[in-house]
Amino acid sequence: MDTIASLRQEVDQVQKELQVLLLRRRDLTMAIWKIKQDQGLPFLSPEREAQILEDFLKHDKDQESDPLFDEVLKRVMLGILKEFEKYLSAKYSSEP
After folding, report:
1. How far apart, in whole angstroms, are the C-alpha atoms of residue 29 and residue 23?
2. CB 37 within 8 A of CB 91
3. Containing domain of residue 18, as a range?
4. Per residue, what are the HEC states of the chain?
5. Number of compact structural domains in the chain
6. What is the pLDDT of residue 56?
7. Could you tell me if 51 and 77 are in contact, meaning their C-beta atoms sit under 8 angstroms apart?
8. The model's pTM
9. CA distance 80 to 75
């Protein structure tokens, strides 16, 4: 039987994994942004962001649809995209 403590340990592990993944995403996004700068490409690509969001919300065959949680996921991904945009803008606009 699961206990609150054991489940919280699992939640803590998931949080650590999320942090590692978000840091990796940051690093990849920064690398893309540097290439875009070098090539004179626009910072944002609305089509790409829309595709990321669509892919993020797709369900696996075994995954049950939960519209309320889908909205949570949508807001999380939109928040990530928006915050990464602000982060990169601040980081690269302050560099020489």
Report:
1. 10
2. no
3. 4-93
4. CCCHHHHHHHHHHHHHHHHHHHHHHHHHHHHHHHHHHHHCCCCCCHHHHHHHHHHHHCCCCCCCCCHHHHHHHHHHHHHHHHHHHHHHHHHHHCCC
5. 1
6. 82
7. no
8. 0.78
9. 8
Token digits of residue 58: 């797709």
Centroid of chain to Cα 33: 15
CATH for 12: 1.20.59.10
**Which residue in this structure is represented by tokens 């991904």?**
77
Q: Which of 26, 2, 40 is nearest to 81 (CA)?
A: 26
Amino acid at 79: G
**Residue 88: pLDDT band by 50, 70, 90 thresholds?**
confident
**Residue showing tokens 């649809």:** 65
**37, 55, 41, 40: which is closest to 96 by C-alpha?**
37
Predicted confidence at residue 89, as pLDDT, reads 81
Nearest-10 crossing angle of helices 67-93, 46-57:
150
